[in-house]
Amino acid sequence: LDEKVISLVNFMLFKYHMKEPVTEADMKVVIKEYEDHFTEIFLRACEHIEMVFGLDVKRVDPTNHCYGLFIKLGLTYDGVLDGEEGMPKTGILIFILGVIFMKGNSATEEEVWEVLNLTGIYAGQKHAIFGEPRELITKDFVKEKYLEYRQVANSDPAQFEFLWGPRAHAETTKMKVLEFLAKVHGTDPSSFPSSYEEALQDEEESARLHMAVLGFWKLSELNFQKLSELNFLSVEGNRATEEEICISQKEVQSNTIKEYEDHFTEIFLRACEHIEMVFGLDVKRVDPTNHCYGLFIKLGLTYDGVLDGEEGMPKTGILIFILGVIFMKGNSATEEEVWEVLNLTGIYAGQKHAIFGEPRELITKDFVKEKYLEYRQVANSDPAQFEFLWGPRAHAETTKMKVLEFLAKVHGTDPSSFPSSYEEALQDEEESARARISAWSTSTSGAT
Q: I need a surface site. Which of 83, 285, 292, 379 has the fewest CB within 10 A?
């Protein structure tokens, strides 16, 4: 039966290359006199295609018993260029992603080849399925942004390591990769306790971040004509900042809600929430006697993206949101990762936004010029790939905990719902506190 399994695998891969479905009738012709063993041969062929080539065999037409082959785990690249012959190489890609994850989210080149050597794959030695594996891994997968290949910091002599690339992060998850590895070993993901726990946290945080994105999107799609009180408050807030005046409850009631005065509290609270989440401003009472309110930039930041003397909406909301994405992505986020999240909110590079104007210029120039963001080329990336980090002004004016609290509020939860990020933010708060105490002690002793 082994020969028939291999024959069927080759036939199914041929159909995949031709972008044609595979019919049960065709497969039975391939195995000929072993038709009585069709189910066993078919299942073994499917398993082989899954484990070696990283493809799923799925029924696409139950009536006519037709099947299609699809790349696993949500990935969109099989390592075969259009118009070229060759075997799908997704299997080795998934395997390497698994090694990187199991090694703590980065694996040295030596660690990767040590594992691959156990499977009969060697650098510089052509493989029947994967061709020249070193070029495939260090060039093709890197070029397609599934892997990041970089020199280990401060290594002398130079040592290199692999990490997941932005496309891997965008298309699949740690849990999916772990499930694949577990299936290869004939077990389940929980058999790898620490990796399973990390994958679960990753799933939960991704779900929460996605919900936060949806929440931000809903808020950023406000109809300003219907919510005129929001326009009034944001415009008056700019005027209040410039002319050092406040917004009075009387002004709001007479200029915006008029006949809805009985609903003032509800309308006012909703407007305050929108101003906070979309524009990144806090509404605070500055004169309790006369019921006057002022608008203030959130989280200790001192820049709202509106140039003096110019009209425009405050843009602190999108800045805070990007700072949150960078933090949640491990303190650096590739340009692709940032735009992927912003696209979910209806914000696109090169497409003017009702609130934020031309967002690419705002993010890569204005926020960078103001030193809230750092925008730099990823080390050793070829072709050039860029990433965002917090700029020195962001570090000086706000904290990871404040940004995490903002994201949690957008999602309607609390910061501890993002366990790993919350732990890091707590450590950051503690370190900042120790630094302040140390600085105070030094200045006190010097004065003494």
A: 83
